[in-house]
Amino acid sequence: MKKWLLFLGVALVASCSSIECPLKNVVATYYNIYDSDGDLFELEDTLTIYSKTKEGKDTILLNRGIDISNFSLPISKSYPEDELYFHFFSNDYDVRDTVWIQKEDYPHFESVECKAEFFHKLTGVRYTKHGIDSLVIKYSNVDYDDTKIHFYLYPDCDH
Amino acid sequence: MLTAAPASAQMKFFTMKKDSIPVFRGFSVSFDLVGAGMATFGDYGQYEGAFRVNLHDEWFPIVELGYGRADTEDEVTVIHYKTSAPYFKVGIDRNLLKDKHGPNRLYVGLRYAFTSYKVDITRPGLTDPVWHWDANYSILDYPCKMHWAEVNVGLDAKIWGPLHLGWSVRYKIRISHKEGDFGKTWYVPGFGTNDNSNIDGTFNVIIDI
């Protein structure tokens, strides 16, 4: 009986818990760029995307993207609409668009030991059309999954 | 080819040894000190008592009632988690010792358990790192449920008169749960923490009635 008491005591000590937070823990939106034929399009010259902080200061989200056909952007944690400024710039053009992204925000919880995070559901997008021909939502759930493309961006190739 | 086991073989597990000892041998009540210690001195734990029927010192139908609580804030993530709720378990233990009527018992048992609970999960002062807006991270009074099963191995040793002390180790298997859209709850009353370890244990004070 004493051996069993010892065995169970050791088993209890060995049953210490451990919690693993997800390794993929970045919540972001992913964009693909397409031409009017629906083929993946490489934007040859510079695209810079920025927004304004609560204090009204510019904050760069994508800095001088060159030769890109896809990119990712952060999404605000708990604010109903993100306002983004797209700046297309080269020797031949210099155009700016404003994009407004509407969304619903949900607190996401894994464990008290894992960082507090929000997941989102994209509910709408509107934009000016100087350098952007079209911007559509293809996948509305924004979470830790970095394999889903949320937006298809069709630039106005006349610029 | 599979063949059905004879009915006599299937029933053998549930039979009782025939001797001069009566089938009904009384009741016992018990209280878990491990969970109570965790609930009193730690961030989470449960107060749990049990009522057990002794059938021929071999079979022990059991009902366990408990009250689990968690109230903790992680120093790094600053997430505050709070819940408290009652739970119950019903099941049966079997004494595996050859000397069934001796002072000690070695059990193996099964339990079905259920709890319905609400959680508060908050992270005060969270600010968006890019836009600097205040982020209201708050899940309040969210209703959840869980059904689970347990496989127990335990032993009791007679100390004095009606007093026994005993260890048990439990392997928990989640059957079904409803935890909402926000993810999964961290501590479930009676089940423990929702992590990758499904084993916990008890240290019981048992009194035969």
Please tell me about this protein's structure.
The complex is a heterodimer of chains A (159) and B (209). Chain A is mainly β and 159 residues long. Chain A has one domain. In chain A, 8% of the residues lie in helices and 47% in strands. Chain A has one helix at 2-14; strands at 28-33, 46-52, 58-65, 70-74, 81-89, 94-108, 117-127, 132-137, 141-142, 151-155. Chain A has a six-stranded antiparallel beta sheet, with no helix packed on it. The model of chain A has no long low-confidence stretch (mean pLDDT 89). By secondary structure, chain B is mainly β. Chain B has one domain (22-208): Porin (Beta Barrel). In chain B, the strands form two sheets. Chain B has an eight-stranded antiparallel β-barrel with strand order 1-2-3-4-5-6-7-10. A two-stranded antiparallel ribbon of chain B has the order 8-9. In chain B, strand 8 and strand 9 (192-193) form a beta hairpin. The radius of gyration of chain B is 21 Å and the shape is elongated. Chain B starts with 6 loop residues before the first helix and ends with a strand. The model of chain B has no long low-confidence stretch (mean pLDDT 90). Chain A binds chain B through residues 1, 4-5, 8-9, 11-12, 15-20, 51, 53-55, 59, 61, 74, 76-79, 82, 106-116, 118, and chain B through 34, 72-74, 76-81, 104, 106, 121, 123, 126, 128, 130-139, 153-155, 157, 167-169, 181-186, 192-197, 199-201.
